[in-house]
Amino acid sequence: MKFETIPLEDKQHALAQLREVKGLFASRGWFAGTSGNLSIRVGDYSPDRFDFAITASGKDKSLSTPEDFLFVDQEGKPSEATRLKPSAETLIHCEIYRLTGCGAIFHTHTVYNNIVSELFWERKSIPVDGVELIKAFNIWEEEAHIDIPIVSNFAHIPSIVPEVTERLNPAIPGIMLRKHGIYAWGANAFEAKRHLEAFEFLFEYVYKWELLKRRS
Ligand SMILES: CSCCC(=O)C(=O)COP(=O)(O)O
Ligand SMILES: [Zn+2]
């Protein structure tokens, strides 16, 4: 089997983008208590062979250090010598890349995403009705309705993966882990960021709208 070498410029570009997104999300308070992780794919792709840069595990993501990221392969194993440990949730990134072929995946824990994941846990998806920002997902129909899938959260990350495989909807660029957080992806970092921001907006909207409805 012949693997293409990933051009060095691609790797540096991916790291520069990760650094920028990490700093921005940290400034919004989206990495509380070392939570969250980010990745960007580099080089050639086939569902059974790809590489990506990902945040190292357990770091304070509001800080910028020379040891924030490493490169891993499609199995989540470091693809170059490093003493860094990849995110504990790397296998979820691997599965999303395998299923979608996307270019970047961003994961955040927020109070709104955690609350709505529990509010709608019994129906296993978060419904959103006719909100303009649904268009951020390239869904342009009038008064569109979407359902954002929610999967179980387990401390043992490999146990989460089969539900991601089963529930991921290619039309919706995100999947929620119950009382944990959202994974959003896109063709590249720009799109993944737009999707994550739209999800977070919609979760706040859904939460506040539910409160208003329940009050009246
Ligand atoms: C401290 S939050 C628990 C782990 C988690 O959910 C997360 O997103 C961060 O884990 P990582 O290994 O990527 O730092
Ligand atoms: Zn997490």
Name the features.
8-stranded mixed sheet; binds zinc ion; binds the ligand CSCCC(=O)C(=O)COP(=O)(O)O; 34% helix; L-fuculose-1-phosphate Aldolase; alpha+beta; 216 residues
How would you describe what is shown here?
This protein has 216 residues and is of the alpha+beta class. It has one domain: L-fuculose-1-phosphate Aldolase, CATH 3.40.225.10. Helix content is 34%, strand content 23%. The protein contains five helices and eight strands. It has helices at 8-27, 90-100, 111-119, 161-167, 189-215, and strands at residues 37-46, 49-55, 69-73, 104-108, 125-129, 145-151, 174-177, 181-186. The protein has an eight-stranded mixed sheet, with helices on both faces. A hairpin with a 2-residue loop joins β1 and β2 (49-55). α3 packs across α5. The mean pLDDT is 96. The site of the ligand CSCCC(=O)C(=O)COP(=O)(O)O has 12 residues, from loops. It comes from Paenibacillus plantiphilus. Zn(2+) binds at residues 107, 109. InterPro entries: Aldolase_II/adducin_N (IPR001303), Aldolase_II/adducin_N_sf (IPR036409), MethylthioRu-1-P_deHdtase_MtnB (IPR017714).
